[in-house]
Each structure stands twice: as C-alpha cells, then as structure tokens.
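User: Could you write out the 3D structure of this protein bound to pyridoxal-5'-phosphate? I've included everything you need below.
Assistant: Certainly. Input first, then the structure.
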Amino acid sequence: MRKVYEYPKSRAAFERACKLIPSGIYGHQGPAEGCYVPVEAFPLYSSKAQGSYLWDLDGNKFIDYMCAYGPNVLGYNDPDVDEAAAKQRRISDCTTLPNPVMIDFADLLVETVACADWAFFAKNGNDVTTCAVMTARAYTHRKKIVFFKGYYHGISPWTQKIDYAGVLEEDVANNIYVTWNDFDELQEAFEQNKGEIAAIIAQPYMHGNFADNELPKEAEGQKALRRHGDRAYNRRRAGRVQAGYGRLRPLLRL
Ligand SMILES: Cc1ncc(COP(=O)(O)O)c(C=O)c1O
C-alpha cells in the first residue's frame, strides 16, 4: 500500500513559528484560517522547489498546481529567468533612482496587454487594488465603490468586512455590496446611489473563499456591468482612464 505523507518537521516548524509570528503562518495559508481540513493532512512549509515541483520540510514532493499563487508561470528556478535576474542584479539591484529597464518593461506591458494604456508598478495586489480605487475616486470625485459579495481584493481596511478586528465603520462606509451575476441588484445599487458611485471593482470571475468559482454571465449581464461602469466614467471624461468594468482597469494585477 502506498505510504501517506507525514509532516512532523512542518508541525515542529509551525510550533516554533507560533511563538514568533502571529498565527504562525498568517492569511489563508495558515491553519488558523481553517483552509486545511484536517490540518494534519497538509504540509505547512517548503524546503526547496524546482520546475513544477516543491518539497516540504519532511522531504515530501508535490506538484505545485498553485504556481506560488500566480507569479510562478514558468516554474521554479527557470534558468532564463534566473539568469536575466542575476544579470540585472550584477548591474544594479535596489537603487535610489529607477533603472530604465522599468520603462522597457512598461513598454512591453502596454504593447502586450490590450486594455492597458499605462503601466504602473506596485509590490502586490493589495497595493494595486488600493491604487485603482484611489484613482477612480480622484477621477470621478465620488466616494462609493460597488463590490461583489464574497470578493477578495487584499488586506487594506477598505477591502474588509465591518466585523473584522481593527476595521472601522469609516473604512467601509462607502462600500456597496451586490451579488455576483445579479444584474437587477446592480441596477438597483446604481439607482439608489445616483451620482455617487466611483467604480465597480470585480475579479474576472468569482473566486470567493470557501465557495465554488463562478464565471460571469455572458451577453446581457456583461453589457449591463459595462454600461454602469461606463456611465460612472463618462461623466468625468477628461483623459483616458481605462478601468475595467467600473473603468477600474488602469492598474492590472499581473
Ligand atoms: C482578486 C484579488 N485582488 C487582490 C488580491 C491581493 O493581492 P496580494 O495578496 O498580492 O496583496 C488578491 C490576492 O489573492 C486577489 O485574488
């Protein structure tokens, strides 16, 4: 019979981490969030990775279908990527002035991504969604943002629910929540908040926590979303701020 993996070293590392890091591993990758059920059946720390594989602390080998949560599209330790990064590091690493390689990269992105007129760099998704919301508010001079229930847009206070520790009413006072793919509810939200909505923020498809993924309804629904987004946007057309459904696509999360 095939031996089931065991994780004593992962458990020991976790116990050590719990004394030093709140929850040991924070976010949904940590056992405290309840994503690993039962917790004993999951590895908690990796020791190395190569190509599409990663190994945990106990030497168990896995295919990493999660691709490091997205960025690792070419596999771990890809020789071309590593060589390019090492080459740039030899020239300069983290410097006071930006290197023109940033402009080359922006050029490539604007050229490659059909909806992008500009490229703006941030260090993570949360910063990008925050920047997108700030841009929409600055551009429209409005406060309210429409969210789809079950969303995840990062860890900033404005993305949180009112019952989360440390979140103030003021942080989420301008959030409007509607149901994914319910375009009547969306319409109603716009009618009830006429002239106040800065943007709709949406994932390309619904991937809420502890829920099945849900694709956007095609045709009419998509058009309704676009129509509402465009309406919010068109009132203040001054420059071209391409922003997704709520014209909130100036900042693509790559
Ligand atoms: C739709 C969406 N927006 C924002 C974020 C936040 O990104 P980050 O964890 O890089 O801050 C995520 C992360 O999974 C996400 O899925």
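Residues 228 and 246 are 7 Å apart (CA to CA).
User: Perfect, thank you.
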